[in-house]
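pasting for the record
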Amino acid sequence: MQPRISQAKAAATFKTNPLDNLIEARDTLDTLLSNYKRATIDCTYADVPRELLESKNKELLLEKASTFALFDKSVSVESCKTTNRIVRDYLGVTGKGPLVGIEKEIQRGLDFIDPDDLDDYVAELENFSQSYSKASSLSYAAGIADFDSVNNFSKQDAEEARNDSSNLAQAKEAIREAKSSLDRLVALLQQGTL
């Protein structure tokens, strides 16, 4: 009597093409890039008006403080900071989203690629990996090192172009490079499945 191959082992030998997952990841990066400004500026902060903090208004300040934040908030000034939180979620480095484990998904594509395109696929995998790692590290650094992430700015200033040399701006460029690599990887996988 011969032992049977277990169902778990048989299922493990069946490999699925990661094309759909890579397309979803590419579309996710495209959505992030299209909405980058909205994803990176958080205007949920309120500051006390500067006039209230002047020494001549000490009595008024004490009076407002004694109301336990029940004073008229319409006189507060809405301010903003840049944030890396949504970018990091989109990149999957927080354990959320379709890019979680993306490099393993791309490596799984090696089993489905046309042998003639193997070198191109591996080169794009390396390009993606470099861009993705760069975007991940720059987005992390943006949370602690970018001037606008630790200092508030007015909502009107949010419409102005932020610092192009900031970590978030550089992360955007790295995300753009990663998306370009994903575009090429998807195209190579689609050729291999024709």
